[in-house]
Design brief:
Elements: H1 2-30, H2 53-95, E1 101-114, E2 117-130, H3 140-151, H4 154-161, H5 180-188, H6 195-201, E3 205-207, H7 214-217, E4 233-235, H8 237-241, H9 248-261, H10 264-280
Parallel strand pairs: 3-4
Antiparallel strand pairs: 1-2
Helix pairs in contact: 1-2, 2-6, 3-4
Length: 285
């Protein structure tokens, strides 16, 4: 068994190394002029500009390379992190009643092409997370909070959250529904690890906007839908730049900016920045 585990880890390291080499090489070929990530400017979302023929082929190649990279890295990560995920499942089960893994419907997106035109369309899928809440809790409070956040309803946010520090007002603080282990998992983002299976399935990508809840999308303004113009991600530009420390409009602008500027170098930069963002814990729920 020990030899098999060592062999598995060797294969994981080889596959991940090959994926990284091809990912970077592809980036050099497709985006030689985009090695430096463009600076972020927060402005109201504008209509997507038309891409010329070369850009269209480049973008298609980017999506193919991105999907291949997602498959190799997510499969390797699942194999490598299997002992950790098993330990978390045991800890969740011992801490409180209920399943170790929680599933929930989210809204993602998929690309469509017809008559030479490209568009993104909303797509519902089931997301997986380690359970961080007590069994049988209601989502009504979270729904009210999220919809008030989107609408900028400060009174409702304060009624639910009370008076909290400015950096904490965009998330529910001291949520009584969260378990003891759940607080640790959320702080370290370890509760998101099962989403590697979503990446492997193709519902998500390693990098992209976080998948939206259905009751979020119900109250989206038209420009909010722009954040659905990219496949949802395990991590993303909003996560590494702000997480839950900024308001909803800023999050939308960050996600829209990513959708407009997505390229292999930016994805690689976000993946490198993610562990540091988790360690800092800024904006963690």
């Amino acid at each position: 068994m020990t030899n098999a585990l060592k062999q598995g880890r060797k294969i994981t390291l080889i596959l991940t190394s090959i994926a990284a080499i091809i990912f970077v090489t592809t980036a050099l070929v497709l985006n030689p002029a985009r090695m430096r990530t463009p600076e972020l400017t927060l402005v109201p979302a504008q209509p997507r500009r038309r891409r010329n023929l070369n850009e269209k082929y480049s973008y298609r190649a980017y999506l193919i390379a991105k999907r291949w990279f997602d498959i190799v890295v997510s499969a390797s990560a699942i194999l490598f992190l299997a002992p950790l995920m098993l330990a978390i499942m045991v800890a969740v089960k011992l801490d409180s009643e209920g399943p170790a893994v929680y599933s929930q419907e989210r809204i993602g997106s998929r690309i469509r092409g017809k008559g030479g035109k490209r568009s993104w369309e909303a797509k519902a899928f089931t997301i997986y997370k380690f359970r961080t809440m007590k069994k049988g809790n209601s989502s009504s409070q979270h729904k009210a909070f999220v919809q008030a956040l989107i609408k900028g309803d400060t009174a409702t946010l304060e009624a639910i959250n009370g008076k909290v520090a400015s950096e904490d007002k965009y998330k529910i603080k001291n949520d009584s529904r969260v378990t003891r282990i759940g607080k640790i998992l959320r702080k370290t983002s370890l509760d998101e690890l099962p989403q590697l299976f979503n990446v492997l399935k193709g519902d998500m990508s390693l990098v992209g906007p976080r998948p939206a809840l259905a009751y979020e999308v119900d109250v989206y303004a038209p420009h909010h839908l722009r954040r659905l113009e990219a496949k949802p991600g395990f991590t993303g530009w909003w996560q590494v730049k702000a997480r839950s420390s900024v308001d909803f409009e800023t999050m939308v602008q960050l996600d829209t900016w990513y959708a407009e500027n997505a390229n292999l170098w930016l994805d690689l930069k976000i993946l490198v920045m993610t562990p540091l963002s988790v360690i800092k814990g800024k904006g963690a729920a």
